[in-house]
Every structure is written in C-alpha cells, then in structure tokens.
Amino acid sequence: MPWSNQNGGGGPWGGGGGGNDKGPWGQGPNRPRGGNGGPPDLDDIIRRSQDRLRDVVPGGFNGGMILIVIAAVAIFWLIQCIYTVQPDERGVELRFGRPKDEVSLPGLHFHVWPFESVEVVKITEQQQNVGSKANSGSATGLMLSGDQNIVNVQFSVLFTVSDPKAFLFNLEEPVETLQQVSESAMREVVGRRPAQDIFRDNRQQIAQEVKNTIQTTMDHYRSGISVNAVAIEDAAPPREVSNAFDEVQRAEQDESRFIELANQYTNQQLGQARGQAAQNIEEAAAYKDRVVKEAMGEAARFTAVYEQYKNAPEVTRKRLYLETMEGVLKNSKRIMIDGQQQGVVPYLPLTELAKPATGQAQGQAQGGN
C-alpha cells in the first residue's frame, strides 16, 4: 500500500506520526509530485485506464474485447482467402480436396478458406538433368550400347507444364517420374545403336528419338507435361576404360587415314588407266581410219589399173611385173645381170667395190668438217 494510507504513528522505519512522512534518515522517500503533492496511486492509474477504454470501445470493456477478437479473426480469415497467382504460374482451387474445373490465371483471386485451398504450379520451361559426368565416379548414366560397349551419357530434358490439374493430381511425383522415364528412354535408344553413334555421328537423331519416347510415355500417364527438347550434353566411356577407348579412336582415325590414302591411290591409278585406255582407243581409231583409207586407195588404184589392163593387156601385164620386181629387189644386195649383155665381166664383185666408195665418202665428209 502507498505510504499515504499507512495508519499509525510512524513510517515503516519507525518515523513519527501525525503527517510526519519521513524515513529513517529524517526525510521521506523521493517521489513525483501529484496534484496534492503526494505520490500517484497504482490502483488509481489502473482504474483510469479502464474508464478510458470503456469510453473508446462501445458496449463496455467486455463487449469491446469480443469485437476485437472477432475483427482479428475476420482479418485473418480474409488474408487466408485471398491469394495471388504470378505471371509464370497457374493455380488450381480445391473444394474439400476435389479440384475445380477452372484454372486460376495470373492476378488476385478469392476462395473460401478453410473449405477451399489452392495449389500453384509454375508453367515456365524447366530443366531436368539426367546422368552424371564421366569423371564423377557415379554409376548414374552408365548405359550399354548396341555393340556391347558401356557409355556414360549425361543429358537434360526441357519441359513445361501444359495441364496443371493433371500435373498435380494424376501422378504422385511427376518430376521424379519424368526423370525415370527419361533415363529409361535413353537406355532403350542407346541399346539399339553402336557406341559410335552416341559419341559423334547421330547425337541429334538419338535426342529426337528419346524426346518422342518420353512424350509418348508421359502422355500415356496423363502427366500434363510437354517435353520441349532433349539435349545430350556429354557422352563418354567410363573412366576405367577411357584409355582403351582412346586407343580405339586413334585406331579408327588411322584406319580412316589409310582408307583415304588407298582411295587416292586408286583414283590416281584409275585415272591413268582411263587415260591410257582413251589413248589406245584414239590410236586404234586412227589406225582403223588409216588402214581403211589405204585399202580404199588400193582398191581405187586396182580399179584404175584394171581399166588400163582391159585396154592394153600386154603392156599392163609387163608394167605390173616390172613394178613388182622393182619392189621386191630394190633392197637386195645382189646384182642381177642379164647373161645376154656383152661387155660386162660376169664375176666382177660390184658389192665389194661399193664398200670403199662408201667409206671414202665418209672420210671426205669428216675431213671437210
């Protein structure tokens, strides 16, 4: 109780009565001055606060508190009933756990909480990575190719949510299902092809086949997912056999180089053979023309001789004989002398006499030089 309400002669430290409110050291305690110069009363402060609250809140203090609680509950309920859908999202409202037919577009929306709730789904393009890098040491992404080789394939799947209701309620874990289906589709396609296709040759075609397989499977599950693209980011042999694969690659490169050299040599030899064949054909055609022309000339000459022969048989016969003998004996080293000729020595060595004359002519020619 305040000191002003103490009954008796002295204060708590034995002070004197009769309004003498001094402490044991001869003075009263330091206190703020009230309207009468006395200390403020705690009960009076509480009573005044209650009076002011009654004046502010209609219906008194007890009724005002109820209104405050009701207003707070109403505000909380209103906050729970209003939700916002962003431009890259779509909302699906549920009434007693059952989804409504309509889909909430971007903006502010209202639903009756707690009887209704909302599920928000992002519809922008998302990326799902499948597999691991070759040097990570993980077995994820290891696949068996069609030629019994093991390859480590790392790829990504780009997808969007085309049907928010199907995405939310037809599959328990749609993203996890997409990852499993993607890995299974890649294993199926790689298992039908040699390792060389996935390493270099046909990556684009393999990615397209995998995309089609994933989309068909997800449509069968009614997942509400649209696969936009499949990108093969890396395809390499396992780390344990990478050196052997490098050796194989170098051997294949050497094989390609040797085949190219062989093709060059083949083309060179084939070109030369074709050129020689064309030359032989041209020479044969020229020989043919020459022989034909000569034959035609001989035939024409024979016809002309035959016409002359019909006019003068004896003269023509003798002429032909002389021309024939001239052609036969013109290169002969023997000298034929008619025995009826007089004044010619029958055994004169005319062939021997011709040799010195030839040698003398050569010596004169050399001396003249």
TrEMBL record:
<feature type="region of interest" description="Disordered">
    <location>
        <begin position="1"/>
        <end position="45"/>
    </location>
</feature>
<dbReference type="InterPro" id="IPR036013">
    <property type="entry name" value="Band_7/SPFH_dom_sf"/>
</dbReference>
<protein>
    <recommendedName>
        <fullName>Protein HflK</fullName>
    </recommendedName>
</protein>
<dbReference type="Pfam" id="PF12221">
    <property type="entry name" value="HflK_N"/>
</dbReference>
<dbReference type="InterPro" id="IPR010201">
    <property type="entry name" value="HflK"/>
</dbReference>
<keyword id="KW-0645">Protease</keyword>
<dbReference type="InterPro" id="IPR050710">
    <property type="entry name" value="Band7/mec-2_domain"/>
</dbReference>
<feature type="compositionally biased region" description="Low complexity">
    <location>
        <begin position="22"/>
        <end position="33"/>
    </location>
</feature>
<dbReference type="InterPro" id="IPR001107">
    <property type="entry name" value="Band_7"/>
</dbReference>
<keyword id="KW-0812">Transmembrane</keyword>
<dbReference type="GO" id="GO:0006508">
    <property type="term" value="P:proteolysis"/>
</dbReference>
<keyword id="KW-0378">Hydrolase</keyword>
<dbReference type="Pfam" id="PF01145">
    <property type="entry name" value="Band_7"/>
</dbReference>
<dbReference type="GO" id="GO:0016020">
    <property type="term" value="C:membrane"/>
</dbReference>
<comment type="subunit">
    <text>HflC and HflK may interact to form a multimeric complex.</text>
</comment>
<keyword id="KW-0472">Membrane</keyword>
<dbReference type="InterPro" id="IPR020980">
    <property type="entry name" value="Membrane_HflK_N"/>
</dbReference>
<comment type="function">
    <text>HflC and HflK could encode or regulate a protease.</text>
</comment>
<dbReference type="GO" id="GO:0008233">
    <property type="term" value="F:peptidase activity"/>
</dbReference>
<feature type="domain" description="Band 7">
    <location>
        <begin position="80"/>
        <end position="249"/>
    </location>
</feature>
<feature type="compositionally biased region" description="Gly residues">
    <location>
        <begin position="7"/>
        <end position="21"/>
    </location>
</feature>
<keyword id="KW-1133">Transmembrane helix</keyword>
<comment type="similarity">
    <text>Belongs to the band 7/mec-2 family. HflK subfamily.</text>
</comment>
<feature type="transmembrane region" description="Helical">
    <location>
        <begin position="56"/>
        <end position="79"/>
    </location>
</feature>
